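Q: Could you predict the 3D structure of Peptidase M20 dimerisation domain-containing protein?
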Amino acid sequence: MRSIRPQSLCTKFWRISSQPQRCQFHKRAFSISVGRRTSTVDMTEEDLAKVEIDRQRLWGELHKTCEWGVGERWGENPTDVGMHRLALSDDDKKARDWFVAAVQNLGCEVKIDAMGSIFAIRPGKKAGPPTYAGSHLDTQPTGGRYDGILGVHAGIEMLRTLNDGNVETEYPVGVINWTNEEGARFPISMVASGVWAGAVSLEKGHNLKEVNGPATQKSELERIKYLGTTEASHEVNPIGAHFELHIEQGPILEASGGKIGAVEGVQAYRWYTVTVKGRDCHTGTTDFRNRSDSMLTAAKLILHSHNKASEMGCLASTGILNLKPGSTNTVPGSVQFSLDMRSKENSKLLELEEVLRAEFPKIAAGDVVDCMNMAGTKGRGCEVEWRLDTDSPATKFHEVCVKCVQESAEAMLGTASTSLVRKMTSGAGHDSVYTSGRAPTSMIFVPCRDGVSHHPAEYCSPEDCGNGAQVLLGAVLRYDRLRAERAN
Ligand SMILES: [Zn+2]
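A: Sure. Here are the predicted structure tokens for Peptidase M20 dimerisation domain-containing protein:
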């Protein structure tokens, strides 16, 4: 028998009847329960649609916890304040304590691993590795209120909604707060999920020193009492699947009018140091023909990397530039610059590298390549050396997980959904990169204003926060149902 249960917040707005009712105040449908407990395998699309998160509760809880790690104020509204919640700081401890208390109140088992990552587990009908919603509560020194924080809060709102709606999942579901995703205070980003995945050693994770001080991650984990006893290991503490809701941190969704990004993967990137060797000479006595101007050459190479990357649908950026000797009246004989190149496809990235490796020496020699060296005076040429510093191949998320996100988004957004749900590739790394190597994973993006992130004015509207959390819940339930179907 199907019974109807009103939500606690809006009892006075509801009439009990055999049909789901819409609350005019909260614009929410009743939760449903079939018999005593609703099981995901018995849920129709209609049933799934009725399990709705409480958008006001999510928004309220998220901002309430932002009192720990208050950053810069940027606007007049009470929530127009950025965040400064560095990993394993006193404020991070307060947010962690809140997390643990909140999930324990919801009846979850809590595991803390050797890197301090917290795993909250809500039991399912069967035993097995949980399907998690994971993200991070730490922020950049001048961060915002949504990067990472939204993903964790949406996970807790998911657990609350399941409890309220009496929904029983086939397998356990849970929420993870990964330690030090940002890599701001302890400078390796996604370090705890990296240790969990076996990509970073525990020793390296523990001994990692803070940027301006003597503390290590281990000493700070001990100090704030989050050095857990569970091994930080995908083998000992496996994940059934990992879904991460995150603000996009870029402008694409907002610019295209999209509401939800179904993230298919994370782009590949390779970082290089390029050295251009020329010869120091006097700026007044050496004419252009007799110069080996390494700075002028570097400028051409950087511009060429931009042109080629544009042509091939990749990204190329230079963020570090050093030149010697650094004197106004000396043509520099040596320049080093960083080159960060990115693409959705590993093969495209390698192709771009191959082209640039072949063309940089020609440009440095003064030959005409595309529009480079078409004007100006040919000098004596420079030499170019490359050093590969970082290689991070593209991550492809799990097709089934991406499909769960897409279906969940389409169900929430309704018929007009095709243009509102956009398949995307993440430009930034996330904990989901490491989990995806060890468990089916995908991400959900929601728009953030002007694509701004890692900045106090980072902003995601209540509507978009709620949409993301609703899609997260729907994706986890869909995945749980598929897991059960596959097992039968
Ligand atoms: Zn993040």
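Q: Anything worth pointing out?
A: Residues 1-36 have pLDDT under 50 and may be disordered.
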